[in-house]
Amino acid sequence: MVERGRFYLLVFIFAPLTSIESAKILTIILIGGSHYMLFDEISHLLHESGHDVNMLVQLGNPRIKGFNYAGRNNSYQITTWSANEEYLTSFNKWFLEQQKLFLQGRETFSTFLDFMGHLALQCEWIMGDADLMNSLKGEQFDIAVIDAFNPCSFLVAEKLGLHFVAVHGGNFWSWYLAGLPCPLSYVPASFSLLTDHMEFWGRLKNSMMFLSSLVAERMIYAQFDKAIKTCFPAGSEPSLSELYLKAELSIYNTDFTLEFPRPLPPNVIYVGGLLSKPAKPVSQELEDFILAAGENGFVVVTLGSMLSSVNLPLVLKEMNAAFSQLPQAVIWRHLHDHWPSDVHPAPNVKLVDWLPQNDLLGHPKARLLVTHGGLNSLMEAVYHGVPVIGIPLFGDQFDNMVRVEAKGLGLTIQASQLQARELSDAMATVIGDKRYKTSALTLSHIHRSHPFPTHQRLIRWINHILQLGGGNHLRPYGLQLPWYQQYLIDVILFLLVTVSMTMYIVIKILKRAMGCLRRGGKMKEA
Predict the structure, then answer these.
(1) Which long-range contacts (C-beta less than 8 Å, at least 24 apart) are formed by 12-18?
(2) Residues 88-93: what's their mean pLDDT?
(3) pLDDT greater at residue 161 or residue 484
(4) pTM (2 decimals)?
(5) How many CB atoms lie within 10 A of CB 148?
(6) Beta strand spans in 230-271 (E)
C-alpha cells in the first residue's frame, strides 16, 4: 500500500513535466560569458522536456575559450547574428582594456554606461536586419525566454510580437525592474553592500542607494532611445520600464541559500544552481596533479569567463606569489597565450586554458574556490560545500560577496587591495578555520534539500505559462498602477491634508471660543 502511494505521488509530481504538448520556444542571448552558459543549459533543458527550441545567439562578442558555442548534439537549434569585423575588432579591444581596469579595482558607472551604449548600437543593427527578423517571425514561436541583463532582449521579443519569460542572470539586485516589493528596512539595494540586518544609518544609506539606482536605470534606458525610435513605428515605441514588467515570469538565477529572505510575488521564480551537478571524474592529468598534493588537497582559481585572457603582470605576480605559499596544489584557469612571459608559475600551480569547474569542486580533495564572485560559480561552490575567497570585479559580484560573508561561506578581498600577503593570509584562514567548511556544508544541505530540483522548477513554471497562454493570473495588479498609487503617496497626501485641515479648523474654533470667553469675562467685570 505504501509503495502504491509513492507511485501516485511521483505521477502527481512529474505529470506536468510530460503532459504538455511540444511548444516552439525562442531563447535570446546576445552576450557571452556566464550568461551564455546559463542560456545554453536552459535551452537544453527545454529541449529535453520535449520543446522545439531555437536559440538566437550573437557571435563575435567576447566568448569563453574551451566552451562549445555551436550548441549541443541532438539538442536545440541555433540562429546566429554578428556585427561586422571592423566593429568587433574595435569593441573587443575596448572590452579587454575595461577588464584590465576591473582587475585593478577601477570599475566605474560611466564604463558600464559605455558598455550599454555598445549593446544599444548592436541592438539597433540586430532589429534593423530585416532578413533575420522576418526569418524569426516566420517561425511563429509560442514564447521567448530572454536574458534580462541586456535590454535589447526585451526589444527583440517585442519587435517579434512574442510573449516572453525574463531570466535575470544575477541576484535580486534588479528587483525593482520586475516590480518586486521593496521593503528597504531589510532588502538591500543594489551596490549598497548591506545585509538584511540594518541599523538606522544602514537603512538611510539603503534608501539613498535605492533612489540613486532609479536614476541610474533611467540613464541606462536612455542609451537605447535611438534604437527604439529607429526600429519601431512612430507612436508605438515601447518603454523599457514597461517591458520589464510585461514578462510572463521573472526568473532569477539565485537561491535563498545565499540570498537574504524577502517577499516575492507569484510571477517571480528563483532557479539558482542550474549549472550545479554531481561531479564527474576529472582528466587523468588533473587527477595526477591533485594526487601529488596528498591530503593537503587543492584550490580552484577562476576569475570568470572573461578575465582568464587578461595579461596584467602586476596583479598576476601578486596572485602567483600568494599561491606559492600554500601547501595545497592550485589549478588556475588562465589562457597560456595571455600569460606574461616574465612571470613563472609557482611549482604548486597548474595553469589551464579551461577547467571543469563543477567537477573539480565536487572532488573530495577540493579545499577552496578563489573566484570573482559570479553567481554560477558561487552556486556550484554551495552545491558541493566548498568555501570561497572572492575578488569581486564588476556588477553584482560585490553584493554577492556580501552575502557570502554574511552566510559564513568565505571572505572577500577587494581588487584594489590585492596583495600577495593579504591573499595568502585570507586563503590560509578560510582553509584552516573549520567554521567556513561547516557553513559551506550546511548551505549545501539546505540547497540540496529544496522540495523540487532547480531544473524541475524552471521547466514546470514555463510549462505552466505555456499551458495557460500567459501569466496574467500571477502578475500583481499593483504593477499596473502608477508609482504614486503603488506606494500610497496619494493616500498619504490626502490624509496629511485632511488631518492638517481638521487641525486648522479645530484650532480656529478653539481660538474663537477663547476669544469669546475673554470678551465675556471683561463684560462681567465691567
Answers:
(1) 13/452, 16/460, 16/463, 16/464, 17/49, 17/456, 17/459, 17/460, 17/463, 18/50
(2) 87
(3) 161
(4) 0.88
(5) 25
(6) 249-252, 268-270
